[in-house]
Amino acid sequence: MSFVAEFNALPLEALRKRSLSATTADVREALVTQQRFGKVIRLFAPLYVSNECINNCRYCGFSRDNPILRVTLTVDEVLREARALKEHGFRNVLLVAGEHPKFVSKEYLTDCVRALHDEIPSISLEVGPMETGDYRPIVLAGADGLVVYQETYDRAVYAEMHAAGPKRNFEWRMETPERAYAASFRRLGIGALFGLADWRLEALAVAAHADYLLRNCWKAQLTISLPRLRPCAGEFEPLTHMTDRELVQLVCAFRLMFPDAGLVLSTREPAKLRDGLIPLGITLMSAGSHTEPGGYTSAGKEHLHQTVRGRIVELGASEWAAPSSVGRASSRAGSSAASPHQNLATHATGQFDIADERSPREVADRIRRLGYEPVWKDWDAALTA
């Protein structure tokens, strides 16, 4: 029986109070994280290979109807990006792409993983859901992790948020971790995007999903992410709001409920909050992140374009001369909620604005000052050879 069947029978409302009653004091007293993981924080970086997408997701900067600047990196350009991250210390990279089989095929992803395998010991993917058989060549090429967020576990909200494209299939997406496990990924990552539906019910659904995977996909390591919506192209406004205090409560609750699961905190959150959450259960953090393809080396800037109905539309001369304002997340030059027709000459549009702009070294130094050890590499294929 898949998780979909269990999910359909969940009494989410009845479980709300019992599951979210944990406090910071409870976690400090239990010292759960240190017992399981020690005083270490694993560091990783997202590497965006493409922002092409065939889905219409109202909350996402990559949504197909957003007239943004798009690009898909070549395998050589992906390798350049990975080597730049390696120079910063990263040995754990997450390959990220919008869902578009024409530009981001299983063969393309396999080639990317194969090219990076000798440089990066741990490679995970966050891409459009696939069949188990399509995942297997990617695993054989060297990928060890698969991350997929359900976005929202509220069926009605899910249908409203996903207007077109294969992502409209709620159950197909929900069963993705199980297909990935069957393909022999050794790490699975799940989560919800907070800001679309009631955060308490979303948290309960994520908890139920995590519990199912720990019981049924027990050979894989599980990570859980609790990201909040950030500004992006398209100017979508969150439908619900989760406060910093509520996020802290949620991290504490998940740490107590799932002592053996990794908890992920990305640069979506501001530096001060990220620092404060480290002692409360976070085990995996991104640093120095870019959310646009080519963000670390400016790779792909010669091939910038827009895409209309799957057809590449080259930029006109006036568009190449446009002023800078959107993308990397434009946090340094303005909000990416500005007109997507700006910044066409410099780099691809990012998926969302980041909040923590510190460099990888600054994040690592802060982790040490908090009494923890930043870990850049925690896996090598030789361990299972």
Describe what this molecule looks like in 3D.
By secondary structure, the chain is of the alpha/beta class. It has one domain (15-377): TIM Barrel, CATH 3.20.20.70. It contains 15 helices and 13 strands. Strands 1-3-4-5-7-8-9-10 form an eight-stranded parallel β-barrel, surrounded by five helices. Strands 2-6 form a two-stranded antiparallel ribbon. Helix 11 links the parallel strand 7 (187-191) and strand 8 (221-225). Helix 3 runs parallel beside helix 12, helix 5 runs parallel beside helix 6 and helix 6 (106-116) packs parallel to helix 7.
CATH class: Alpha Beta
Count every beta strand, where a strand is a DSSP E run of 2 or more residues: 13
The 3D shape can be described as globular
CATH homologous superfamily heading: Aldolase class I
Output the radius of gyration: 20 Å
Determine the mean pLDDT: 88
Which structural category do the helix and sheet elements fall into?
A: alpha/beta
**DSSP strand (E) fraction?**
15-25%
- What CATH calls the topology is TIM Barrel
Major sheet strand order: 1-3-4-5-7-8-9-10
The number of distinct helices, counting runs of at least 4 residues, comes to 15
Please give the alpha-carbon distance between the first and last residues: 33 Å
Task: Give the ordered list of helices and strands.
Answer: HHHHEEHEHEHEHEHHEHEHEHEEEHHE
* Low-confidence runs: 321-344
Q: Biggest sheet, open or closed, and with what strands and sense?
A: 8 strands, parallel, barrel
The total number of structural domains is 1
Helix content: 25-40%
CATH architectural group: Alpha-Beta Barrel
